[in-house]
Amino acid sequence: MVNLTVALDVMGGDLGPLITIPSAKMAIEHVPSLKLILCGDESVIRTHLKEHNFLDHPRISIVHASEQIAMDEKPSVALRTKKDSSMRRALDLVHTGDADACVSAGNTGALLAIAHYVLKMLPGVERPALVSHLPITDSASHAFMLDLGANVFCDSDTLFQFAMMGSVMAEEVDSIESPRVALLNMGEEVIKGSDHIKQTAALLSKTPEINYVGFIEGNDIFTGKADVIVCDGFVGNIALKTCEGVGKLVMGKVMKIINESKFTRLLGFLLNPTLKKIVKRLNPDQYNGASLIGLRGIVVKSHGNATSSAFFNAILEAVKEVERQVPEKIKNKLEVSLLKRS
Amino acid sequence: MVNLTVALDVMGGDLGPLITIPSAKMAIEHVPSLKLILCGDESVIRTHLKEHNFLDHPRISIVHASEQIAMDEKPSVALRTKKDSSMRRALDLVHTGDADACVSAGNTGALLAIAHYVLKMLPGVERPALVSHLPITDSASHAFMLDLGANVFCDSDTLFQFAMMGSVMAEEVDSIESPRVALLNMGEEVIKGSDHIKQTAALLSKTPEINYVGFIEGNDIFTGKADVIVCDGFVGNIALKTCEGVGKLVMGKVMKIINESKFTRLLGFLLNPTLKKIVKRLNPDQYNGASLIGLRGIVVKSHGNATSSAFFNAILEAVKEVERQVPEKIKNKLEVSLLKRS
Q1: Does A147 sit behind a cis peptide bond, omega within 30 degrees of 0 on the bond before it?
Q2: Could you give the number of structural domains in chain B?
């Protein structure tokens, strides 16, 4: 097994090292080939490692960073002024090749801006995209959806690149052969979507490298009709957050009915943990992180209020992407298609 | 009690009279002041009425229409060529004042196009919007959301008008005093939305007639933070359909757990109908119809595969809007605000 190294932004997220250090310990114990570089305030990191009896582990090293980026800090300010932040240090390590990937639960906008600046885009990719998996009804499988909020508006070229990148993710990370790629669109019967979606559909239809299966509506995100669902970041973000809201709504209503009688209350004990798990899965960055793809390096974003197990899952996601060499594969696939189009 | 008349597009929807006639009977029995004009093929209507022992009811009349619009017919073609369709006849009756409102479960795009053409817009409104209620967590209350799919893209003036119209709906139909109006936007921490959303926010902030409460994210649609949620039709349609998808996903997972043992299966019988009801409420036009507002007349759209009770609910929604004189109230509110802005 090849050794691989992941840099962690220890100070990112609402609770910083309180969450990230236990996750680091779990990851080291779980993946024998994994090395971690912990970026952040060294003395704080050492205190937390000591608390977990994990100081001076041979596969853990520390890179000191004197600053940290607040969750509500303006991305452009963070990019310009916080050159010694834990997030910047972690991304720098990916850039220099000292780490194979970076995981952060910090400010999403800042992570996007700094990752874009430090790592740069892959050739042929204009914008990075946030991608994650969503669960599928009656199946252990899932669908990749992108962009989940990195870009407000995307033109047809950008959406085309997202389709390409999502297809590589599904193929490489999930080993799906010829993944079915769909464009998220509104009800066909009303109006068949905006011009740039139609243009993207036209581009995808004539690209044999992509198994384009057409438009998909919101109610089919979870039905397994597509392995990759492509949309702009505004729509993706709202769809995703709406999922979370509906999950909580349905869960609340179910628990209310269950609590109405003694008999059914018993069922609540059985259902409650599973329902909570479903709702959590509907929030992918709380579940296993969302990946920032299109960059010359692997960056996984965990939720600001991720638990230790969610941040641990995000580290595992990064490990998987390193093993499958996702950016390299995206680069190759894009090169082939760009060559054909030119 | 004042008499009121609703025109029904009997032939619209997947099952036409099989659904609409029983709903008409229910509505007539439920609302003593209601008169219905059934638009469609007279002999078919008479056959169905006879089957339900409801022929020659004094509060039911028939307007014959020789054509009907297919669910997949192109709206522009339906508008141009189907001048004797059941949908067109029903809308014509609203236009001439013979009916106070129209209810249809037919082709949404055609209904939009023909309603727009026949009824025309209220002064100061550029585009009609589809609006409906969504349930709120832990409450019997709901939030109005618009546009749900009538318009792909909306500029800031259109979104502003939608906010105004939604506010009137909440005030008049739901008797909410000074309804809280919010704009649906993506996660603030990533990027704060598109330019036209920011422009709409600026417009709303300086309009004292609207109780504008700021941006709302997808996960807060159901938490009761706002009484009116405004977005463009593309986003609204996708958010709404995603809700439906999540509802089914969660329900599927819950039923799977329930079916795992004999004991819990018993409880499943108890939960199943309530769960189905929740999922149904997430699809407003299957629940009580979506209203097409901004027009000089009341039009309620029921789902293509609505059940009799859903189509009945849509008729009741139309009755409510007639009683509260919704278009008149929208007109008045817009006049006041336009006067102030000019």
Answers
A1: yes
A2: 2
Out of A305-319, B95-109, B218-232, B242-256, which region has the weakest mean confidence (pLDDT)? B242-256
CB contact under 8 A, B249 and A137: yes
Whether the CB of A166 is below 8 Å from some CB of chain B: the reply is no
Whether A239 and B237 lie within 8 Å, measured CB to CB: no
Whether B276 is in a domain gets the answer yes
When scoring B116, B142, B159, B242 by the number of chain A Cβ atoms within 10 A, the one with the most, hence best to mutate, is B242
Q: A240 to chain B nearest CA, in Å?
A: 7
Q: Which residues 103-142 of B are in CB contact (within 8 Å) with A?
A: 107-109, 112, 135-138
Q: Of A242, A262, A281, which to mutate for an interface test with B (greatest number of B Cβ within 10 Å)? A: A242
- Domain of A258 in residue numbering reads as 131-284
Averaged over B193-218, what is the pLDDT?
89
Q: What is the C-alpha separation between B35 and B61, in angstroms, rounded? A: 8
Tell me how close the Cα of A146 comes to any Cα of chain B, in angstroms: 14
For B244, the closest chain A residue by CA position comes to A219
Angle between helices A233-258 and A262-281 (to 10 degrees): 170
Give the mutation candidate from A142, A232, A246, A277 for the B interface (greatest B CB count, under 10 A): A246
Query: Which is more confident, A110 or A342?
Result: A110
In a domain, A342, yes or no: no
Contact (CB<8Å) B245/A72: no
Average pLDDT value over all residues in chain B: 88
Q: Alpha-carbon Rg of chain A, whole angstroms?
A: 21
| Tally of CB atoms within 10 A around A108 | 25
Residues B38 and B57 in one domain: yes
Q: How far apart are CA A78 and CA B123, in angstroms?
A: 48
Asked whether residue B342 is domain-assigned, the answer is no
**pLDDT per residue as tens digits for the range A185-198:** 986 544 567 788 88
Mean of pLDDT values over B150-167: 92
**Per-residue pLDDT at A339 exceeds 80:** no
Same domain, B277 and B138: yes
| pLDDT above 70 for A21 | yes
pLDDT tens for each residue of A275-289: 777 777 776 656 678
Task: Tell whether A184 and A150 lie within a shared domain.
Answer: yes
What tens digit of pLDDT does each residue of B7-66 get?
999 999 999 999 999 999 999 999 999 999 999 999 999 999 999 999 999 999 999 999
Domain co-membership, A148 together with A254: yes
Name B149's Cβ contacts closer than 8 Å, sequence gap at least 6: A186, A187, A190, A191, B108, B130, B233, B234, B236, B237, B240
Does residue A177 sit at the B interface (CB-CB below 8 Å)? no
Residue A187 contacts B, CB cutoff 8 Å: yes
A108 falls within a domain: yes
Task: Indicate the residue of A151, A244, A252 with minimum beta-carbon distance to B219.
Answer: A244
Per the listing, tokens 């609590």 go with: A259
Asked if A194 and A74 sit in the same domain, the reply is no
